[in-house]
Amino acid sequence: MIKIFKTFGGYDEISKIEKGCWINVIQPTQEEIEKLVKDFKLPADSLQDILDADEMPRLEFDEDYSLTIMRIPVESPEDGIPYHTIPLGIFITNKFTLTICNQDNDTLLLKQTVNGTDSYGFILRLFIRSGGLYLKHLKQINQQTSVIEKDLEKSIKNSELNKLLKMEKCLVYFVTSIKSNEIVLAKLRNSKKINTEINEDLLEDAIIENRQALEMAQIYSDILSGMMDAFASIISNNLNVIMKKLTLVSIVIMIPTLVASIFGMNVPNGMEKSFWAIPLIIISATIMSTVSVMIMRKKQWF
After folding, report:
1. Do residue 200 and residue 274 come from a single domain?
2. Most buried by CB count within 10 Å: which residue of 68, 161, 239, 259?
3. Is 199 found in the same domain as 273?
């Protein structure tokens, strides 16, 4: 889907390309990609790179355009992982600014329109918007993790542990993507190939927002990793306790079995014709089992 807007922000859609316009491309078909290459003179290999889900952020300069690739957070409930990141590409030419992404997202929904000539200001606002979304999703991940933790305190199940693993995977995606975005922001600050002047205040805001998101993602990732290690230790300890109790129960049960086995042998024992043989055997086995249980409880084995 290709849409053309007069200014950045997506509030004034037009039918033809004008100087300083914004072209937004979402989930392009093969025909639309060919149109971008033929009509807009954009490189086919770079377009395919942006549509690759594993493409990392970078900054490129060419004679006819500059390309900025950043990674943005999106929701993905159908994959089992609540959030993941995807690449967003921004081409800047003398005539237009084009954004392309393989999935509809909230990063491009700016709260206000931006002057069509301020292309790099638009990119910085996208970084700020992306940082805000990272922070928003991180808080939601933290809330979901707290709910899973409460469920695990009641009963440790594989389903809850799998949910924690997916949360941890999600945080790894976030940390990796935010670190890569930070490198691109540093290149934007230090690049000498940018002809227009970059708003330093806006750049500083983008760097601060990105850094804050990175710190929060790392903190939550460390907390979740520690939580996973703690629950792994608890599971291992619970298993040891259960095995210990089963062993003690086996020992207690073995005593009457041993007594019955001795008196059940085909050897004379002086009680073959006694009426009290069976009651005495049962009473003695019960007394021995009771004494063994009392000894184990005194030693706090139970």
Report:
1. no
2. 68
3. no
Asked if the model's pLDDT at residue 115 lies above 60, the reply is no
Residue ending a domain, choose from 190, 219, 237: 237
User: At 103, which CATH number?
Assistant: 3.30.460.20
In angstroms, rounded to a whole number, what is the distance separating the alpha carbons of residues 178 and 70? 9
- Asked if the model's pLDDT at residue 290 lies above 80, the reply is yes
DSSP string, the chain: -EEEESSBTSSSEESS--TTEEEEEES--HHHHHHHHHHS---HHHHHHHTSTTPPPEEEE-SS-EEEEEEEEEE-GGGSSSEEEEEEEEEE-SSEEEEEESS--STT--SS-B-TT-HHHHHHHHHHHHHHHHHHHHHHHHHHHHHHHHHHHH---HHHHHHHHHHHHHHHHHHHHHHHHHHHHHHHHH-S---SPP-HHHHHHHHHHHHHHHHHHHHHHHHHHHHHHHHHHHHHHHHHHHHHHHHHHHHHHHHHHHHHHHHTSSS--S-TT-TTHHHHHHHHHHHHHHHHHHHHHHTT--
| pLDDT for res 11 | 67
Residue numbers of the domain that contains 256: 240-298
CA-angle at 188, arms to 74 and 203, nearest 5°: 75
What pLDDT, on a 0 to 100 scale, did the predictor assign at position 211? 92
Same domain, yes or no: 290 and 141: no
Instruction: Specify whether 289 is located in the same domain as 177.
Output: no
Number of domains making up the chain: 2
pLDDT, tens digit (0-9, with 9 covering 90-100), for 149-202: 777 766 666 677 778 888 888 899 999 999 999 999 988 888 777 767 777 888
Average pLDDT over residues 56-74: 88
Is the pLDDT reported for residue 49 higher than 90? no
The pLDDT mean for the chain works out to 82
